[in-house]
User: Fold these one by one.
Assistant:
Number 1:
Amino acid sequence: MSDINVLISKFDFIANNPKEVIDKYIAEGKKIIGCFPVYTPQPLVTAAGMVPMGMWGGQITPTVAAKYNPIFTCSIMRSCLEFGMTGIFDQMSAVMMPMLCDTFRGMSSAWRAGVKNIPLISFIHPQNRTDSGALEFLIDEYKSVQEKLEAIAGVKITDATLSATLDLYNTKNLVMREFCDVANDHLDIITPVVRHNVMKSATFLEISETIDMVKELINELRNQQICKWTGKKVILTGITAEPEEFLKIFEENKIAVVGDDLAQETRQYRTDYPSGNSAIERLAANWMELKGCSMAHETDHTIRGQMLVDMAKNKGADCIAICLMRFCDVEEYEYPYISKMAEEAGLYSLCLEIDQSTQDNGQSRTKIQSYAEI
Amino acid sequence: MQYVLGIDIGSTASKAVIMTYDREIYAKTVVPHGTGSIGPKQVYEKILSENNLKKEDLSRILVTGYGRFVFDDADNQKSEISCHAKGINFLNPEVRTIIDIGGQDVKAIRLNEKGMILNFVMNDKCAAGTGRFLDTMANILNVKTSELGSLSEKAEKVVTISNTCTVFAESEVISQLSNNVRLEDLVAGINKSVAKRVASLAFRVGIATEVAMSGGVALNKGVVKSLSEELKIDIFVHEDCQFAGALGAALFALEELEKKGDAIT
Amino acid sequence: MSKTQEQKPKRQLAKSMIMVNEQTAKVYAEAREAAEKGEPIGWSTAIFPQELCETFGIPLVYPENNAAAVSARHLGGQFISHAEGEMRYPINICSYARLNIGMADKITQPGWEKVEPAMPVPTFLTLANNSCTQLMKWYENLSRNLDIPIFFVDCLYNYYEEEPAPHKVKYVRNQIENTIKKMEEFFGKKFDWDKFLEVQKISQINRIMFNEIVSLNSRKPAPMNGFDLFNYMSSLVLCRGKESTTRILEQLKKEIEEHIANGTSTYGSKPEQYRVHWEGIACWPNLGYNLKTLKKYDVNCVMNGYVTAWDVAYEPGDMDGMAKAYQTSSTNSFSTPSIMEKRTESIEKFSCDGMLCHVNRSCKLMTFHIFVGRDIIEEKAKIPTTNFDGDQSDTRVFSEAQFETRLQGLVEVMKANKEAK
């Protein structure tokens, strides 16, 4: 197999087998901290010598989680709780949970009731980010998370270590953004599924590994001939765009993904850790600078819509595919204006339902195919 | 003579249309079995035998509908949205909004003056507002789904069914029956329930005249009337509307032949 | 609220209730007057620090309260349909939001058919997310759709059982103080700190009095049909800092004390057999059916968790205390163990035999509490609980048959428990 295909297979394996990744790190004597979506202070985990791993649920129909978790809440949280209650996450030393929406508020109690063996580190971001006291609040909030992580790791995180870690995270951000750009010249190789596997792997792997592997992929891609894509191009937006069967529908209809605003993917990498008076201030400032996310309140309520329209136009896409996680209320509140802004800008918008508890993609298949046939 | 065949394999029924190269509808037929059953095979064999045709007389077969991926003899498949749009546009080129209520899907499609799709929406994954809802209700009332339309015409008033959940709506209907509510009035309420749900979807995509319905439920005059009231607009229902999908599939088959240079008039 | 006027009263409306209706009408009238004069008028979330606008003398109306009133009168459907249809809002978001966002769109269109109580078009919004995060998203949409600013006090969330840490109180206090400054600019008037102190004092007097009245229902038999509390809550929502509320509560207290003295109750002449704690918001469109069915089984919902939301307790003059109070009000600002601790105390105090839980399709948070809290209630309060499905304002969720079946089940267990004693 050629080098690039070997790499692509590696990403495929990692994205689909996070358990193997955890096993490897545990065997190396490392501690794992699970990170609930979407934004958690992962640099603190890395700086403490532990490995932060993304928790993105899975394609299952929960049964035991139903005791604590109403059915009209998002499937990604229900799957996570199910995994927690059935031992799938047992190797984690703790999990971090941000209070980004009402379901998280409920889950912080549900997890403690149902998963007594994995400690929960809850914390909350300030939503009034333009208030003069917001940054100071988040610094203190992160400090309390830091104390808990230090207790688990048995080390104290110094300012210097954290600062160096933040720089490393900025490098990762840069590399991931570069990958997304380079991928658009090689849409024959970086199909929607491959692209997704790279992005998802980056949420499981230790940071240095991610940087090295993605850099290697970028170099391999640069050695390939540029592909002039003749099919359609879409931007994906939402929480997640999975599973593979769903993404394959785009591939079958010769539609390429040329950009995304997915919580699991590019939203993780588009905001850097700025400079600041201390490392912890830099960490907190990252949240303050976040733009265009349904979970971070903004005073200008059209930023995300405009960002998506601009992204589509810059990348030559004529469609914004809104991957709407069923029961994700923060995304559901934004669906109307995003779809209308897209249409006003002369773009198509698709509303594709994402639900981890169902294996039926029939509706999405019809919608995507119909768009391709226009 | 050469023909093309379009088949629409839905969740509850399979429809077939044979067209000539002159774009005339040569034959059409429907069987009340959908995907995953004998339906697709049956409608294929039936339309051939009823018209004394053989497979070899067909230059091209195109399928659409939920079951379009598992029909072996098809030369190609296209989504039901594209096919319904094409079919209805053929039946009435003035139509700009199509509302299709199928067995388990509801779709609203907007067309431009060229008959091309501008935008479309589909229902949330839920039986409310679909043919399945009507079938379930008809079952409880011990009538045929096909009778729901004529029954509601005799309604004196509309008995509201408030629940959209099919399961709860069932118990609501049973409760009303035990209160000796008139069957006709109850049917009117059921039709209205479907109409409200469908209207909501239609408003999302925007209404432009002319508005037409397609799909089996369009044959239910009660639902059509109720929907017309909700949308505050006249709805055009062609007698062949149930075949719109299969018709569109047949037309696509012809277009594909013409592109290949194979269709000789 | 005017909803009790819609039920055919077998007895005359109590004077206190007439006063509530008059007070509500006045709130809306003042708001409409201000709107007509082109003066500022705000839409506010239910537990935003009302003391601020009360001090500024700027009228507020409350969309959640309005949605409850409109849906109690079965008039919410058209707005919900509009929000779900043309406006494309998914059906899964809170029905108050769908109703209000749909209504907000209609009132900006000329000649719309007014639905009483009619909300005037707002010029600003006041948002506190102590009740939930959906409020924040709802108000973002209002702000975008109506092109008006939001005054936001982010109240965070108490994910553990401990008191809010100092850095949390500081953040909320800072926001309150900054909001005052921003409002001074927006309204073009200075904030009167002396008046503010007075408003705080009145708010505390009202709060304490309401708690006393609610406590009266812990007597056996209860002098009030607990459902009445839903009606009086309106005063606390709309006029927490007003003296008119003090008058109403004084009157109500008098009436209840009279009932106690006479051995009567607003529950009616047939005595209660079972005392039940109602968990969750009311099913506003189905109040009549709920009440009728509860009475059929001789159940008095003597207490509900919802009324405690307006127990916003602080010392007048203590800004830290006020900040802390606003981040520890509402069922939804607490963890489930915290809430169930409160419920257990309440169940004991009010001698409840069982707990009836409204699984409200619109309120994920309260539903989580019900699901996660069930074990805690059974273990600590040792009473049976039952759930039923419904919604606070969407008529398409509640099922009469299911409600009665579930209630009957609960009654059978409560009956067996009593006989076993």
Number 2:
Amino acid sequence: MQPITSSSRIIDAAIELSKRRRKTVAVAAASDSAVLAAVSDAEKLGVCDALLFGNDSRIKEIAESDGIDISNLTIEHHDDPVEAAYNAVKAADKGRADVVMKGFVGTSQLLKMVLSKDFNLRGKNTMSHTAVLDIPGYHKLIGITDGGMVVKPDFETKIQMIENGVEVFRALGFDKPKVALSGAIDYVHENFPSTLLNKRIIEHFEAGQLKECEIAGPMTLEAATNRDIAGQRGIESPVGGDADLFVVDSIEECNIVSKVLILFIKAVFAGVIIGAKVPISLVSRTDSAQNKKASLSIACLVAEYLSQKGGE
Amino acid sequence: MEPVKDFHHIENLVKAQTKSPRKVMVVGNCFVKWMRALKKAKDENLVEPILLGSEAAIRENADIHDIDIRGFDIRNTPGGSVTPAIEALQENKVDILVRGDFGVLDLLTALFRREAGFRIGKNIVTSISGHFVGALGRMLFVTDPMVIPAPDLKMKIALVENAVAYTHKLGFSKPRVALTSAVELIYPVMQHTIEGAVISKMNDRNQIKDCLVDGPLSMDCAVIESAAKEKGVTGWVAGRADILVQPNIETSYGMYRAFALYVKAPSGVIVVGGKVPVCVTSRADTVETNYNSLLMAMV
């Protein structure tokens, strides 16, 4: 598979995939306008099918009042949103769905269900969020993790976040994604705690002989995404100026820096939670239609990648 | 005085205030992009640039890039030393320092030594970046992208106070300060949300004065009025913040680069709280960013 380097290609690739093996998204508590709009659009485009778990009359009411066509989507009626979410997760567990999508239910509540002993969906890693950004001015996509779930990763958690983010890029067709560990400076310095942690992380990956990815850092955003600047800073790693995944040190760094790019230059954003056996998709009201389509598309590509990998 | 809206306003303010050219010394070899910025300011009679290093090399470099550096004070000294700057600082012979080809941490470490005379009493030295955000039609000030790696509560208060004192000079009589976080709700597991709330309450109790503080605020709730409204976040600051006080240096630095490099927002960055301001852009920055930093330092 050719590596995917733009947000429109993410959507195209998901459509191509669905012609061969159509993916099904189970919406956990579907009485949410933004979510219904996203799955309706994605189904029309041919990205995926959707099973809507939730209150039948409430879902139809929202669809009607907001002008969302759900005629091609299947509703499985459950009165209570928590029960609806539980059954959406169950559908993924039973193989009836490939992706779980968060609807009108709390994120932590949904994740608890996914990790519950009732199901066999738990993976070996912690769950983390990877956002893939299409930034005008950068020659490829860049992933950034974690701006949604992991507040302040320790050594073990950061390693798992990296492994999760690498999976996303492998699903996008990159054999050996290039991973940059973020910094406010491009070298290790004792006054900067994140650089000390990142040094240990890189040693860990190097000891494992780096089969799955290239990794380097600490590296500033500009050195990770601009070849000339990387050169000026003496960064020799192929990651410099060409990073696929930018791994940050706190939820604030990820969230705030990506917001600048999304709000002010309309970077397209596609996010997915991975770490379980199926990907979890979430969109918010403030996401553009393109962001929502890209998010569902990336979840379908990750689902395909994980199922192929599991079958190896 | 009206709050400045963009760097042109700052430039006008600086021109009106500058009675005699300020002495600006570049520490380390002067990048070409700094020579151009200094030349521009010199043509406006705002600065008297002082360059250190091999005079022959400096003149040759200026020549190659066709920069007229007549009137620059060039001091033939061994290149790459901070000593002349420290001496000038002690003798009150410099008004602004510029970081040339010299590591930012090495420069700050040298300046922070007590005997350097850069620190004033117990004042805390911090850095502030300024960005004109076209989509908002106004300036945002961000702290701290360069100096304090992981500020604790006490240090965050200093960040607020330094940024407030600085923006007062730019006409913000009561600047709106947002303590940013990933979310606008307070969660016990997220330390920055707690500290944001505490500082906000200290402002309510008038322990932090001459500004309006709110926190925690997510980025969109801090600067986009419609986003704040939609999320039901009210108050004097939400959607209208002038100053963003950020959880850590990685967030501030990343924001500075995202604005300067990708959003292409006119930007500048300076160190404040010391005896003189220091411009701390890097080789990756444009002439415009260097010039804007100089303007920020001259106010």
Number 3:
Amino acid sequence: MKALRLDDIPGVKEAVAKARNEQFRTRQDGWLELLHDICGIKIRTMTVCDYVLLERERSPFINRCEPTEKDLALFLWILSPQFKPGKSKRIAAFLHGRKVHRLFCKDIPRTSEPAVIACFKYIDKMFADAPPTIKGGAESSLTYLTGWFDTLQSEYHCSEADVWAIGVPKMFQKLNAIMHRKNPNLPNFNQRTDRIKQEILNGLLEKRFTLDDLKNGKATFDLN
Amino acid sequence: MATSEQTAFYNEGVGHGAFIANISAAGNVILEDFMVTDPSKKILQSNQIGAPIKAAGVSDFVTFSAVAQCPLNAGNPVIILKGETFADPYYGFTWWIEEVSPAFRVGEYWKQNIKGQRVYGYSS
């Protein structure tokens, strides 16, 4: 039986340290609720309310499928700093849609692709700390919103309006903190470092390289 | 950059760095937060009224706890089962797994908490 420390694999220690720092910055950004840049268009940090709205609109960015130009425009409008849920802003929406069309839809897919990729990266950032689920757990009769509202309101005694307005990354970090406080044995997940480790495991399982190849720096895999 | 204090909340950063363990049935698995407990116990001998006469210390059974990141086979996690064995690169011991948690999932990553004991009278 062999064992190999990840630190002994050339390049992995540095890649893991870089990934940890990136994750640290992403988590901090979640608290600062910064504006994000999508190829020149500013969007807000997604709130619970935005998520529900996008989910109701069956946004391909939430469901991880290919979006149309209309989907891109709607996504960027719902998350724009000008958008206020429940308030009609038809002229602002029209002008925003025209700007999106002018910037990204002149020569699809060449002009739209960078924006679509940036939107998916934004989604990855928003959901980087989604709390873990358990394999084989029973099907819940409650909606995910019940879980989010119930947990946050019972722990922090905040109003429903506060929960609707909370940023999704901040909420996930709070839910993780609550889960870890109640169950200290819960494993920690870090999407960025876990991805590097999974790359190594997949390569070994698919026999693309061996432990010796890894140790001698002969294995090639994506560390970024 | 995160300091150790900043990342050490909720057990983050506890134990040894991650390593690839070749587990007998599950294959290659990455173990992180590998923490070994090496306890001792005292043997005390006292006289009829409880006054100390002799004392000695002996090593007790060595145990470990770790978090395993499961490999994926066609998108499904290869779940670690109790009774499996592996070697570690820090102590050079062979360990057997006596307790496994359910698999926790975030996206495409699956993890299990595992606990176990050193295998005695067996060298890797």
Number 4:
Amino acid sequence: MSKRIEINDLDVYYGAFKAVEGVSLEIEPRSVTAFIGPSGCGKSTVLRTINRMHEVIAGAYVDGEILLDGANLYGPGVDPVNVRRQIGMVFQRPNPFPTMTIRENVLAGVLLNNRRMSKSDQDDLVERSLRGANLWNEVKDRLGIPGSGLSGGQQQRLCIARAIAVSPDVLLMDEPCSALDPISTLAIEDLIEELKQEYTIVIVTHNMQQASRVSDKTAFFNIAGTGKPGKLIEYDETTKMFSNPSVQSTEDYVSGRFG
Amino acid sequence: MTTAAPAATTRAAAPNRPADVIFKAVSTTAGVLILLALAGVAIFLVAQAVPALIGPLPEDDSFWAWVWPLTFGTLWSSFLAMLMAVPIAIAIALFITHYAPRRVASVLGYAIDLLAAIPSVIYGLWGIAVLAPFMQPAYTWLAQNLGWIPLFTPPASGTGRTILTAAIVLAVMVLPIITALCREIFLQTPRLNEEASLALGATRWEMIRMAVLPHGRSGIIASSILGLGRALGETMAVAMVLASAGAVTFVVVGSQNPSTIAANIALRFPEAHGITVNMLIGSGLVLFAITLLVNAISRWIIAKTTVDGGR
């Protein structure tokens, strides 16, 4: 369950404001791609266009196309709800549903599509997803407690379990570790390494070390100034991006000589 | 009030600033005043009700037998009103917060607030002059065709001034309170929770069920109780609309309707004298007790159902 993403000449607008301009890149299946760049450069915006979550903000729209194994996500008649069922997302801050138990949180997405699931199938899925998120051993005895009772790092892994429970083709992560301590961060990074066997993963991060540790390819975004659209500056193998980038501003950014 | 005194003596006493002293005095007075007002009302009600509670009454019924139909009418009309108002209010609040385009939403918001500003006597007039004649044919139809349901037992009222009409008026009156509060609560749903459900592929309605309603549950209850408080105590509109006969019946389309405590006091008080005054005040005490009980229950429910934001 892993698909290839192709972004062709993508512009993103919030109303009259052009937030991102002319992004084109290809993301291979079963790989981890990191989006890096200064705040406001549009990397999160691009990430959110991949599962059409940017449309949650009124007035947002895109020009260009994003192909998932050749099928245009922005084609006529494509329902964003179906797009999001194929492309899971993990957010900056852990957001388990506060009124649901751990078990209900994992099943939340699955039960949207398939209400008639037998109890034993549900149990299997909960165990499989929580194991997949490296959380099973920590919570197997207390699946009935509210998800908000876990620590921040555990909550984030619960959110990952919830996202992979629906077996998506792609997993998007929007700074998944920015609210976590270093140990929880390490746990998530290890998990990303494992999830890569099955999913196409795109991760936005502000942490250079994280990008170099987890990703196969890296995309660097930048803006010319406030109010100008963000652009994709360089996209290449992570090792090359961090050792010998071909654009000067990439080198400035990854070596810390730039805001 | 005086709790700060011991701490002040152990430390080297800092000079009190005049502004602090004045503000403390003013706010303490205000706090005490509200308690005094509440106590005053309660003492008045109890003291004036006692003769009716113990004494012989003119129609030698007990006080409780007399007040029961009124209590029933109060609860029944409020219940019917809440049954209509709460779902509609929640639906309007959801429409304003999650479906309507921004401009429509703000216009609708103002319109709802405007409804709250209409005096209840106007609602009463509207109920008598417009709603009752409008509903009357419907009542006749219900009594003829659905008369086997105990709610619609014939004969239907000829004027349309039934308890259902009164309840509809009450529902319109409490709608703005509930809607306005629900709207505020729904707007406070954490964006993260909404996005979490959308990112799982939830439709807008599924998102509302997964994120908005669970988050707003205690707020919905609280706003409903506020609305219920208004419906229980509403006097003028019910007094004008309802043609009451003091019956205890669940029939909502007939002419034999129970009255409500508040409306009954308003209608009877001008010509009351002697023990009847005490009886009316006694019924007021019952209403006071009911509202107190409703508030206590709601506090309890809210405390039980409140969820923290998840962080």
